[in-house]
Amino acid sequence: MAAYQQLSTPLGEMMAVATDRGLFLLEFTDPQRLERQLPALERYLGEPLQADSERALFATVQQQLDAYFAKELRRFEIPLDLQGSEFQRQAWSALLAIPYGQTRSYQQQAQAIDRPQSVRAVARANGDNRIAIVVPCHRVIGKDGTLTGYGGGLWRKQKLLALEGAVAQPGLFDD
Asked: Is 69 tagged catalytic?
């Protein structure tokens, strides 16, 4: 049974969806994104999503997010349910291989999966990533070093990279 729960982060509320295999979705709850995604998720999964505050995986995800934002966690240890095409799964695996605090260009990511001519397809696969932060698509930037494309908003991408030390910008989390 697929279940969901809302989680809190310093960058906003997130919706987590889990299947019996693992974390299936972790997205910021910006209304325009969720309105499109939730019905599509139910169709994709073939079942309605159920609210479930008792599922242990959600507590683990929240604990690890808290540790990540406190700079105490560099690598998530959460079972993932990465459903997509073979190409998408390759691109997502390449994302998981990018170390904390480092960035890669879309070109470097395409080369990492032995598809150097597939830069646009890699960018699209990154955009199709449903597990923000944990599958770190925020670590992929333009070849010229510019911040490009992030479903949660470029301002969040910038803050995530600054948190990891990949982009020096003091004061992002100061109140």
From this structure: no
Distance of CA 23 to the CA centre of its chain: 11
Query: CA-CA distance, 67 to 72, in Å (whole number)?
Result: 5
Q: Using one digit for the tens of pLDDT, what is the confidence trace for 30-65?
A: 766 666 777 777 888 888 888 777 789 999 999 999
Question: Which one of 17, 80, 137, 161 is the catalytic residue?
Answer: 137
- Give the Cα separation of 166 and 18 in Å (integer): 30
For the record, the structure tokens of 144 come out as: 């010229």
Global pTM reads: 0.88
Beta strands 50-51 and 3-7: pairing type? parallel
Q: For the chain, what's the residue count?
A: 175
Question: What contacts 77, CB < 8 A, 6 or more positions away?
Answer: 64
Query: CB-based contacts of 9: which residues, under 8 Å, 6+ apart?
Result: 65, 69, 133
- Radius of gyration, CA atoms only, the chain: 16
**Rounded distance, CA 7 to CA 155, Å?**
19
Q: Are residues 137 and 161 in contact, defined by beta-carbon separation less than 8 angstroms?
A: no
User: CB of 78 within 8 A of CB of 22?
Assistant: yes
Closest CA relative to residue 152, chosen from 162, 135, 138, 169: 138
